[in-house]
Amino acid sequence: MPVATADALVGLGLPAQLAQLLGGNPNVLTCVGTTQATTTAIIKSTNTELITAGGANACILPATPDNVNVMVPYNIVNPTSTLGLIFAPSGHTMNTGAALVLNGNVNAATGLAQFKSCLVWQYKPKFWTFILTA
Amino acid sequence: MIVASTTTLMGLGIAGELADIMGADYFLAVGTGITQVGAKSLIGDNAELNVSAGQTAFLLPVTQAVAEPVMAVNTSATATTALVFPPATHTLNGSTTVPLSIPQFKSAIIWQYKPKFWSSILSN
To answer: Chain A closest CA to B95's CA: distance in Å?
Structure first.
């Protein structure tokens, strides 16, 4: 979970690398494809807004560097009406065993609703979990 | 809110004590019993909970600082719910004895918002 934007932290004197770790500049990510294998939309910011559409609703969490990313929570929101599919990187495990589905819980099938958000983090190398809004 | 692992933060020049506050290191905890008394004490801020029938109880760390959250995930192989109790005399979500239930494959963030009073967010 970012504590501020990276830009703001740099402006307050933090070194850039540390500011990137602690902060999250807003990033709008247009999803690509519908599967882990076909998506090329890589989440790069801990403060990400997804843009989804039919046939283009998948994105993937960053694979590297594995250890640096452990316990870095990603704040992701989907303001669009199409389900957002958030995949773990290839070879990694999402806690549910499948993609995290925003705007429609993969576990409970809560239905389609806009403006769901989640925190996703790697609790140990290559293993991810999340908090999803109700 | 935890922002990274403690070791990563220290690697970027953050002093150890501060990195410990801002970061978290992984801890695998195996449930003990089913009640608050005798439950497995959690240490650290990043707990992977492993439970089995009759061994589902955990205790939040009494030494945890205010506003320093514990992030916990139940990754148990069976569909068994983890029970996370407040320390004795502490209150979690309004009760001194009722645990937070974390089902299999669910996560929670739990924090002490003022001394001896805890709250939580459980994933949908």
So the answer is: 23
Q: What is the ipTM of this complex?
A: 0.87
CATH number for position B37: 2.60.120
CA separation for the pair A8, A81 (Å, rounded): 31
Provide, as residue numbers in chain A, all residues whose Cβ is less than 8 Å from the Cβ of B46: 71, 123
Q: Compare CB distances from A105 to B25, B109, B124 and report the shortest one's residue.
A: B124
Q: Which residue has the tokens 């599919």?
A: A85
Nearest CA in chain A to B24: A71
pLDDT in tens, A6-58: 999 999 999 998 898 888 999 999 999 999 999 999 999 999 999 999 999 99
Q: Please give the residue range of the domain that contains residue B66.
A: 31-122
**Full-model pTM:** 0.89
B56 contact partners, CB below 8 Å, separation of at least 6: B31, B33, B34, B80, B81, B82, B83
CB-CB under 8 Å, B23 with A71 = yes
